[in-house]
Each structure stands twice: as structure tokens, then as C-alpha cells.
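Need C-alpha cells for this chain, all 79 residues.
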Amino acid sequence: MTWMFEVYYLPPFDAAREERVAGVVARHGGRLDFREAPEVDGSSNVCLTYEFAELASAEAAAGELKAAGDYIEGPYQYT
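Here are the C-alpha cells for all 79 residues:
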């Protein structure tokens, strides 16, 4: 069973933010599954989808990121 959550932030692309988020995710055993770039006109957010093998790990990483002020949706079970 696989678990995931999504991190959203406003454009433009923010390499430092993505590196910080990736570090938190990696410490909890997760990995980047998909990166959705915003529309060219800036009408949508950057969306990063992270995947985890265990729900507890996904919840811990999501909690840490939320505490740092990131907007998270999930964790959810991948179907």
C-alpha cells in the first residue's frame, strides 16, 4: 500500500523551497513522485506529489511541513 500527499505553493518556481521540502520528505522515507508546473499565465500553483510506503511516515512529514507553513493536501492512499 502506498501513501501520498501534495505540496502546493504559488508560482514562480522556488528551488530553495523545493529543496527544503525534499529534505523533510527524504528524512521520513518519501520520494518525489510528480511535479506539476504552473500554467504559463500563472493561473495555477506549483504542485509537488510525494510518495511514501507507510502512512505514519507520510503523516510525520506532512505534519513537519505544515508546522513550517507549507500547504499540504493529504496524506491519502494511492489508488
